[in-house]
Design brief:
58% helix; elongated; single chain
């Protein structure tokens, strides 16, 4: 990242966001209704919920979805005006593929 590889930074930020979202705990109907004030938990962290822990396969699946989204978007950018954006998306996909398939990938 010291070379400020924009494709790598963009791809990794988006993928970390996708992983963070996947770790979120689903909100049930009961949580949406809320509690009476006197029933509310008190203290620091009292309302925190433990996040899901993703397995290695789940992480790889999420990264593969991110790669597929970039390649699909790049394929749709066929106009000459979008060549730079398509190249950027291909570069981001290549960065992510290196993480799941090893350094010789893409």
């Amino acid at each position: 990242m010291r070379a400020r590889d924009k494709a790598a930074v963009s791809a990794l930020r988006a993928t970390l966001g996708a992983l963070d979202n996947a770790e979120a705990v689903p909100v049930g109907d009961a949580a949406l209704r809320g509690l009476a004030l006197e029933e509310s938990p008190v203290g620091a962290g009292a309302t925190e919920a433990a996040r899901r822990e993703l397995g290695e396969q789940e992480v790889e699946d999420i990264v593969r979805v991110e790669v597929a989204e970039r390649l699909e978007a790049a394929a749709q950018l066929t106009a000459l005006a979008h060549v730079d954006r398509a190249a950027q998306l291909h570069a981001e996909a290549a960065v992510l593929l290196r993480f799941i398939e090893g350094p010789g990938a893409a």
